[in-house]
Every structure is written in C-alpha cells, then in structure tokens.
Amino acid sequence: MEKPFIKIDGKKVYPAPPKMKVWRAFLQSVEENNDNATLEEFLDREVELIIIGFGRPDVVNREAIDENVDLADIVPLVKALFTWIQTVTFEKLQDLPKNG
C-alpha cells in the first residue's frame, strides 16, 4: 500500500513509522461510540488522529490541518492512515520466524 501523505504549505508530508501510541489511539477510535457526538466533536477527534498518526506534531498539527486540509478530506485521510498502519504492522508480523 502506498504511504498516505498530507500537503502542508504545498509540500507533501509523510507519516513517521507508527509506534504503539499510534496503534492504540486508532484502535480506541474504532471502539468509541460516536452516536452522541456532535459533528464538531467527531471532527476534532479525527483531526487528533491525523496528528497522532503522522507522528510529526511540529509539522502536522491542528493549525496546519485547519489551514491546509479540505474538510471533506479529513475522514478519508484518517481511514487511509489506519489502513496503512495496519498494513505496515502486519507486514512486519509476517516476517517473524514461525514456531516449528
């Protein structure tokens, strides 16, 4: 899978290799019940996932996202990040030696 990116000030920014913090945040988001959340609360959580998922808060932060990412691209970007994180994680697991 191609690594997702975000454009900040016209430059492509790619996520850092995912850490456990990122994995946990995305799994927690899947388990959350958003039925009672307002649209703004939901989008705030999605933006936070983007910041965590990219692991580069010096470049990808709330202000940069607010100024550079179209509203309609927020949810698809989160989904692409999570798919990429899963792919990277499971590819490495396949490389582990099998118990004989």
Structure description:
- There is one protein chain.
- This protein has 100 residues and is mainly α.
- Helix content is 56%, strand content 6%.
- The protein is built from 4 helices and 2 strands.
- A two-stranded antiparallel ribbon has the order 1-2.
- The longest helix has 21 residues, at 74-94.
- The N and C termini lie far apart (30 Å).
Question: Any chance you could write out the topology, listing elements then pairs?
Answer:
Blueprint: E1 6-8, E2 11-13, H1 20-31, H2 39-54, H3 62-68, H4 74-94
Antiparallel strand pairs: 1-2
Helix pairs in contact: 1-2, 2-4
Which key terms come to mind for this protein?
single chain, 2 strands, 4 helices, two-stranded antiparallel ribbon, mainly alpha, globular, 100 residues
SS-based class: mainly alpha
Report the helical percentage.
55-70%
The number of helical segments is 4
The parts where pLDDT drops under 50 for at least 5 residues are none
Strand composition percent = 5-15%
Radius of gyration (CA) equals 15 Å
Across the major sheet, the strand order is: 1-2
Give the termini distance in whole angstroms: 30 Å
What is the tally of beta strands? 2
Order of helices and strands: EEHHHH
* Mean pLDDT figure: 91
Query: Major sheet: size, sense and barrel closure?
Result: 2 strands, antiparallel
- Report the principal-axis shape: globular
